[in-house]
Amino acid sequence: MELSKTRQQEQDSNPREKFIMAARRHKILSNKCSRCGHLMLVTVYYCEKCFSHKFESNELEGTGKVVTYTIQAVAPEGFEDAGSYAWVVFSVDGTDFNVSGFLPGVTSASDLPLGSRVRVLDYHPKHGLTLQKV
């Protein structure tokens, strides 16, 4: 079976590039520790629980519930293009794995109640993992 050009490029790329390509497909690329089963982002090189360095690549759906966030009402220097946004930590559906990302357009707590649903939209070179409310 021949791999698509995009999938072949993904196999040949480094962990950061693989993470970005997965985000562009609305997914989260993680590593699952072969020893203890702990999930981490693919960009982590040692297990945070048992310090093993053997992993299985694991692609997760990029959806979940907001567990906390910080609203940046005044964008810092270099992020003027962002306007008001939230830096969100969300729990990935079906896991005990939390991921953080950039959610534009949030101006107040009423815009984003805890438990709100979000999904990975894309990866932005400056803002990182970009989310949207669902």
Describe this structure in words.
There is one protein chain. The protein has two domains: 5-61, no CATH class; 63-133, OB fold (Dihydrolipoamide Acetyltransferase, E2P). 13% of the residues lie in helices and 42% in strands. It has helices at residues 5-12, 15-24; strands spanning 27-33, 39-41, 55-61, 63-72, 85-92, 98-104, 117-124, 128-133. A five-stranded antiparallel β-sheet has the order 6-5-4-7-8. A three-stranded antiparallel β-sheet has the order 2-1-3, covered by helices on one side. Strand 5 and strand 6 (98-104) form a beta hairpin. It is globular and about 45 Å long. It starts with a helix and ends with a strand.
Q: What would CATH call the class of the largest domain?
A: Mainly Beta
Strand content: 35-45%
Record the strand order, biggest sheet: 6-5-4-7-8
Oligomer: single chain
CATH superfamily heading of the largest domain: Nucleic acid-binding proteins
The biggest beta sheet is recorded as: 5 strands, antiparallel
Strand and helix order: HHEEEEEEEE
Task: Estimate percent helicity.
Answer: 10-25%
Short note summarizing the structure:
The chain is mostly beta strands. The protein has two helices and eight strands.
